[in-house]
Amino acid sequence: MTHTVSAPDGVMAARVAGAAKVYGAGDAAVHALDGVTVGFPAGRFTAIMGPSGSGKSTLMHCAAGLDTLSAGAAFIGETELGSLGDRQLTLLRRERIGFVFQSFNLVPTLTVAENITLPIDLAGGRPDTEWVDALIDVVGLGDRLAHRPSELSGGQQQRVAVARALAGRPDVVFADEPTGNLDSRSGGEVLDLLGRAVREMGRTVVMVTHDPGAAAHADEVVFLADGRLVDRMAGPTAATVLDRMKSLDGRPAGAGTSPAGGASA
Length: 265
Description:
This protein is of the alpha/beta class. Helices cover about 30% and strands about 25% of the residues. It has helices at about 55-65, 85-95, 110-120, 130-140, 155-165, 185-200, 210-215, 240-250, and strands at about 10-25, 30-40, 45-50, 70-75, 80, 95-100, 170-175, 205-210, 220-225, 230-235. The longest helix has 16 residues, at about 185-200. Residues about 1-10 and about 250-265 have low confidence and may be disordered.
């Protein structure tokens, strides 16, 4: 596959500015996000990390338009999500965002091929056959297209989910603990696939993970603690990420981690 030129430096596929998210009110209020400003560069793979309860999943859900901010703004490209009505937001998510979740979320009655093109079919569009064929080649499931999800391993199901997220050529793919239900080998394959989507297909990936080994696949890691952005790290390794995480949550080395993501965040 030919390499796709990445976006110019400084172009953000997604970003939040002054992002705050409060659950509850009064003494019971929980500040899940507390004034976070961060951008996710186009054509790059960014991981979001932090201790349990740091706000990393909340940040991703608000940046992706799955949840609304209490204050501040979230953007996909130059489109401010808070300015959109429900229907406009649904269309934007369908046309410009891809999602990969820990639980795969495949439709059990559909084949692999049908699951991959499902978002495009629901939108009434026509899949770009050349692009979808290239995706199927990259995820290595050409001999499984007529199978149903129950006939696939967990790793294969998640590769289908990644292909589905990429099928409509979204501006950005958000992945929430995509290796959380996988063994280390399958998790590694999915992470390699997300990396190839960025390097070879020019896509943008933003991934929430609790696992330093998974974060090491990213170009950059952003760290949250207590709902605030506390650090950024370019060129991460599992060791440097684990070191930074230990300083954030005070746990002993290796606590709650696995080679490709097994424990909960």
